[in-house]
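Researcher: Quick test of sequence recovery. Tokens follow.
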């Protein structure tokens, strides 16, 4: 490698690991940009999932409708993990429910867009075919494991049922498979937990059981909506790591939806930042955390505790900068940039005109901000 190439590699951050501005170290992952020599593009397979220009609205009691998603586009590549992040109400769950075609009816309406999975637009599939996709090729893990599990059946019975739903086998075989799955998700002595009821398990254990059910027939894509938000800090990291390990072992793609920017950044190849129903920035976690480009992403990153800053008992919490204000009311869309009322960099133009997505990092990432387009 010549000196010029070495300089290029440094500029692109091609080392074995990178340190973000907050001190978090990110291992280099296969999916990140920058490995191809200049002028050549790596050969890539088509994404497993491609969400294109998705717009969803909800009917209100007053007979009007509010936009929940407005032109959301992103890809989940084969075998990679994508983290969908943003504050409460920005449209993360609506995105997940749209992919699974589980939006509440009749209030929700898909206004436009496509959700292409393995080359097929899920939005045009008959419901029967969609039922086979759900829980088959696409699995899901939701936020509150207690509501997702049936209280009157043992966890073993529920995992067995999930297995037998996808594959014909005897009860004995299904039990052996269920025990193996419990072991896989971190129960070292699964037979001791097989007959437990959900209420007898901790939150972290219940989340593991749900993951075991989702892996009963390993899906191509696992959608995990806030898989860790009901858990304490130590368990969050564990469950995220478990998700990532399983995805790697089984060659699954993962779409992880979360408020937990630092945790998802540890496992994701790509981050998609949503704000008020629109994508405002995409990029690999190392770049997004080290040099966020959109003022909203910058605020999100500033609110992440620096690495090693977890308090010891009795230590006073250091205040982190928080983002003032809240998401705009979706019933009133005054035009312009949705982030303008909270943006420290707002310009006159931002209040009148909605910014489009601009390319960044040589076209690899996108940012929805006029500052990125060079307009001041
Ligand atoms: N059933 C519904 N009826 C009406 N509006 C809804 C419904 N579900 C979601 N919305 C609206 O859609 C928008 C996006 O909601 P969504 O649940 O996707 O947010 P979220 O990003 O998942 O938030 P959280 O982090 O709190 O889970 C919000 O404005 C919300 O009020
Ligand atoms: S377009 Fe304007 S208001 Fe919106 S994020 Fe950029 S600078 Fe801020
Ligand atoms: Mg949600």
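Model:
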């Amino acid at each position: 490698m010549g000196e010029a190439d070495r300089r290029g590699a440094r500029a692109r951050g091609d080392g074995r690991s990178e340190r973000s501005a907050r001190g978090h170290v990110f291992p280099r992952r296969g999916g990140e940009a920058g490995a191809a020599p200049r002028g050549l593009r790596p050969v890539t397979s088509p994404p497993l999932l491609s969400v294109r220009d998705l717009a969803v609205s909800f009917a209100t009691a007053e007979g009007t409708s509010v936009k929940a998603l407005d032109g959301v586009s992103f890809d989940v590549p084969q075998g990679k993990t994508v983290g969908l992040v943003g504050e409460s109400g920005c449209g993360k769950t609506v995105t997940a429910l749209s992919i699974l075609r589980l939006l509440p009816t009749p209030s929700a309406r898909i206004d436009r867009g496509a959700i292409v999975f393995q080359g097929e637009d899920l939005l045009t599939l008959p419901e029967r075919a969609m039922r086979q996709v759900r829980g088959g090729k696409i699995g899901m893990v939701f936020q509150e494991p207690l509501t997702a599990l049936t209280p009157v059946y043992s966890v073993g019975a529920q995992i067995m049922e999930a297995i037998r739903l996808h594959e014909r086998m005897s009860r004995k075989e299904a039990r052996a498979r269920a025990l193996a799955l419990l072991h896989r998700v971190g129960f070292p002595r699964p037979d001791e937990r097989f007959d437990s009821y959900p209420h007898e398990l901790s939150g972290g254990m219940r989340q593991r059981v749900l993951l075991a059910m989702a892996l009963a027939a390993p899906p191509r894509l696992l959608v995990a909506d806030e898989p860790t938000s009901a858990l304490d800090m130590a368990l969050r990291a564990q469950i995220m790591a478990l998700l990532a390990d399983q995805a790697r072992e089984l060659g699954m793609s993962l779409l992880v939806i979360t408020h937990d920017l630092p945790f998802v950044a540890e496992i994701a190849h790509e981050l998609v930042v949503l704000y008020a129903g629109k994508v405002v920035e995409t990029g690999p976690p190392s770049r997004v955390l080290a040099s966020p480009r959109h003022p909203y992403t910058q605020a999100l990153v500033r609110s992440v505790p620096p690495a090693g800053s977890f308090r010891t008992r009795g230590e006073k919490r250091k205040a982190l900068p928080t983002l003032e204000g809240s998401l705009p009311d979706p019933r009133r869309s005054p035009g312009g940039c949705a982030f303008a009322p909270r943006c420290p960099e707002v310009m006159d133009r931002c209040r009148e005109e909605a910014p489009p997505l601009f390319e960044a990092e040589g076209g690899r990432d996108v940012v929805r901000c006029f500052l990125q387009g060079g307009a001041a």
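Residues 152-218 form one domain.
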